[in-house]
């Protein structure tokens, strides 16, 4: 189904509770698979998390994780450690285009038995679980942080632990820090050491957890869409979001600092976050380096578009291997709306656009973030979002909550 979003405005003062962080939930589920005594509270309701949870519980020989990239990376590492287990790990057509060879090669150097089912370097993967006795591996630091996190999360279960040596520049550092902090909280700070480009995780087999309860914080990536809604609203518009931490482990908690540039102020009271449109943007040209926060790049680009701003976004090299080529998708869809966009392999330039076209149908490319990033434009011009159900990948309640804060019942149409 598609959804038509009419020109509207937010009902100021609403309070929303967002689902638990997908990033935190997925890390907690993988560690729980090795340490069943770990209790997880406020688990994400996202499709990706539910797919990972079912896969970890499954006894089937074929595991299909559809579009869930995190699940593919984490499960590759997990099944490699499950002695005697044989699985075919597969996914959607797009998943089979997303490279995974750097993670596979790192696991193979540790002794893993993994081979490719179709095309070298890409899923599906045949995995035979074996004991991984080697304890040191090198891997590039400028690849997906999920590769690095997958290795770190299996490390406590290995008989000799793991020394991970990162080569070159690191990307998405906050996500790596999230994994390290999470492991230190559950296992003890002394178990995980990070010095320079070397991460050491000691074996924790047959040892109790230091903390066996993890309460998942609400998802900052999901919060980005509400920052965008407020940024595109009149001055004085307010929203309150619950279950957030000012000192969050999530990289996208950079949102309050980034959205100051769009005139959005953020205040905290305990675990409650209050956001308000307090001013017009104080610059007509924005320049952001988003290497550490690539998941909110689409939201930021669309916010700048809605406000008629010029924007140069860089550090976006990982966007080309996400659910879709997000840079190309952004260029295509923003151009439909009447703006000029130029992209490179790692950047996006948006020229100022003072008049958006009406009634444009936004393709979502099986990418949840395309649907949600463009939704706030309803405050500037009527649009249609294609395949609205795609949001269930990370934020199933999204459209229901958009209706709640807009006071509008949206029209759904059949796919054509």
Question: Could you characterize what this model shows?
Answer:
- 30% of the residues lie in helices and 22% in strands.
- The chain contains 12 helices and 22 strands.
- The chain has 2 domains: 163 residues, Enolpyruvate transferase domain (UDP-n-acetylglucosamine1-carboxyvinyl-transferase, Chain), CATH 3.65.10.10; 194 residues, Alpha-beta prism (UDP-n-acetylglucosamine1-carboxyvinyl-transferase, Chain).
- It has a 4-stranded mixed β-sheet, covered by helices on one side.
- Helix 11 links the parallel strand 20 and strand 21.
- It is globular, with a radius of gyration of 21 Å.
- It has 416 residues and is of the alpha/beta class.
- The model has no long low-confidence stretch (mean pLDDT 93).
- Helix 1 runs parallel beside helix 3, helix 3 packs parallel to helix 5 and helix 9 packs parallel to helix 11.
- Pfam families: EPSP_synthase.
- It catalyses: 3-phosphoshikimate + phosphoenolpyruvate = 5-O-(1-carboxyvinyl)-3-phosphoshikimate + phosphate.
- Its EC number is 2.5.1.19.
- It is an enzyme of class 2 (transferase).
- One of its GO terms (molecular function) is 3-phosphoshikimate 1-carboxyvinyltransferase activity.
Give the spatial strand order of the biggest sheet: 20-21-1-22
User: What share of residues is helical?
Assistant: 25-40%
Assembly level: single chain
Q: Per CATH, which architecture of the largest domain?
A: Alpha-beta prism
At the third CATH level, what is the topology name of the largest domain? UDP-n-acetylglucosamine1-carboxyvinyl-transferase, Chain
Q: How much strand content do the residues show?
A: 15-25%
Note the gap between the termini: 9 Å
User: Major beta sheet, specifics?
Assistant: 4 strands, mixed
The whole-number mean of residue pLDDT values reads 93
Highest-level CATH class of the largest domain: Alpha Beta
Q: How many whole angstroms does the radius of gyration measure? A: 21 Å
**Which structural class matches the secondary elements?**
alpha/beta
Q: Uncertain runs with pLDDT below 50, 5 residues or more?
A: none
- CATH superfamily descriptor of the largest domain: Enolpyruvate transferase domain
Strand segment tally? 22
Number of helices, counting only DSSP H or I runs of 4 residues or more:
12
Keywords: Amino-acid biosynthesis, Aromatic amino acid biosynthesis, Transferase
InterPro entries: Enolpyruvate_Tfrase_dom (IPR001986), Enolpyruvate_Tfrase_sf (IPR036968), EPSP_synthase (IPR006264), EPSP_synthase_CS (IPR023193), RNA3'P_cycl/enolpyr_Trfase_a/b (IPR013792)
Protein name: 3-phosphoshikimate 1-carboxyvinyltransferase
GO molecular function, one term: 3-phosphoshikimate 1-carboxyvinyltransferase activity
């Amino acid at each position: 189904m598609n959804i038509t979003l009419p020109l509207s405005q937010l009902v100021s003062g609403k309070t929303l509770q967002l689902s638990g962080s997908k990033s935190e939930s997925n890390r907690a589920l993988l560690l729980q698979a090795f340490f069943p005594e770990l209790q997880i509270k406020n688990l994400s309701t996202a499709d990706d998390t539910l797919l990972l949870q079912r896969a970890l519980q499954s006894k089937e020989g074929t595991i299909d994780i559809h579009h869930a990239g995190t699940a593919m990376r984490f499960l590759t590492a997990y099944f490699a450690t499950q002695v005697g287990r044989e699985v075919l790990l597969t996914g959607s057509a797009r998943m089979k285009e997303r490279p995974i060879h750097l993670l596979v090669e790192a696991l193979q150097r540790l002794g893993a038995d993994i081979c490719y089912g179709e095309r070298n370097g890409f899923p599906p993967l045949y995995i035979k679980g074996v004991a991984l006795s080697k304890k040191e591996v090198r891997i590039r630091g400028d690849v997906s942080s999920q590769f690095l996190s997958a290795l770190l999360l299996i490390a406590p279960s290995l008989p000799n632990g793991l020394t991970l040596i990162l080569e070159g520049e690191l990307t998405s550092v906050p996500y790596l820090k999230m994994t390290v902090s999470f492991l230190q909280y559950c296992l003890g700070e002394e178990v995980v050491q990070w010095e320079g480009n070397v991460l050491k995780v000691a074996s924790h087999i047959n040892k109790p957890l230091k903390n066996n309860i993890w309460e998942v914080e609400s998802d900052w990536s999901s919060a980005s869409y509400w920052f965008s809604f407020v940024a595109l609203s009149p001055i004085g518009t307010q929203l309150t979001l619950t279950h957030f931490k000012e000192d969050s482990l999530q990289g996208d908690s950079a949102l309050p600092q980034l959205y100051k540039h769009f005139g959005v102020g953020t205040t905290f009271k305990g675990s409650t976050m209050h956001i308000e449109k307090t001013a017009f943007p104080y610059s007509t040209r924005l320049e952001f380096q988003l290497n550490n926060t690539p998941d909110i790049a689409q939201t930021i680009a669309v916010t700048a578009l809605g406000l008629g701003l010029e924007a140069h976004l860089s550090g976006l090299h990982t966007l080309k291997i996400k659910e879709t080529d997000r840079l190309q998708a952004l260029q295509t869809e923003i151009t439909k709306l009447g703006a000029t966009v130029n992209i490179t392999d790692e950047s996006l330039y948006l020229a100022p656009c003072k008049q958006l076209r009406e009634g444009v149908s936004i393709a979502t490319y099986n990418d949840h973030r395309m649907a949600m990033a463009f939704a706030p434009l309803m405050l500037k011009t009527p649009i249609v979002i294609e395949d609205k159900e795609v949001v269930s990948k990370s934020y199933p309640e999204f459209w229901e909550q958009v209706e709640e804060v807009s006071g509008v019942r949206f029209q759904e149409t059949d796919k054509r």
